[in-house]
Amino acid sequence: MKSTSMKYEAKIEVGLKPGHSDPEGETTKQSLSELNYPVKSVSVSKVYEIVLEAKSLNEAKKMVDDMSKRLLANPVKDSYHFEVEEAE
């Protein structure tokens, strides 16, 4: 029996919510300033690229949102956004 699942690619960006300390961003800003780049601010985020199977784009988006809430982002300090599209 043939599976009706499709392959999807998701890109999830997880970063700190405003007001949370970003020591890596501050260190990078300072280093870039020392190299004479006119940098005003730096924030660090992680990007997860995930390939998954789902029956529909809507189901894939629901799974990615669930993954983000349950594992990839800490709801206390992180915000996240994602894009999901059909894989080629």
Features:
3 strands, alpha+beta, elongated, 34% strand, Mth169, Chain: A, three-stranded antiparallel beta sheet, 88 residues
Could you characterize the architecture of this molecule?
This protein is α+β, with helices and mostly antiparallel strands and 88 residues long. It has a single domain, classed as Phosphoribosylformylglycinamidine synthase subunit PurS (Mth169, Chain: A), CATH 3.30.1280. The protein has helices at 23-34, 57-72, and strands at 6-16, 45-54, 78-86. It has a three-stranded antiparallel sheet, with helices on one face. The mean pLDDT is 95.
CATH C-level class: Alpha Beta
N-end to C-end Cα span = 23 Å
Largest sheet: 3 strands, antiparallel
Strand content: 25-35%
Q: From the alpha carbons, calculate the radius of gyration and give it in angstroms.
A: 17 Å
- The CATH topology corresponds to Mth169, Chain: A
Mean pLDDT: 95
